[in-house]
Amino acid sequence: MYGSNEEPVCFRRDCEAVAIPSGEAVILPKGVQGTLIQALGGSFTVYVDGNLYRIGGNDADAIGKEPIESPNLPARRIRRRRREACMGPDVATASILKFR
Length: 100
Description:
Shape: globular
């Protein structure tokens, strides 16, 4: 599972991670060795003992990288009725007309 852009890493401290694809939260202990597979979107993917884990950008220092702040996205206001949000506009409109 090694490629040209991958690099070895050794965890400098205990680090919170999320197992891929299960989504299970784990702690990768200090001293564990692995491979940095990807750095994208403010997080890192590492390969450790046959498993993939997502490391948040704020924990980048645990693998010797500069911490990355999560992007601060502007809040969006959703202006749909709940029924439309759950069913989509066509189904919601049809059900409203049906019950009138």
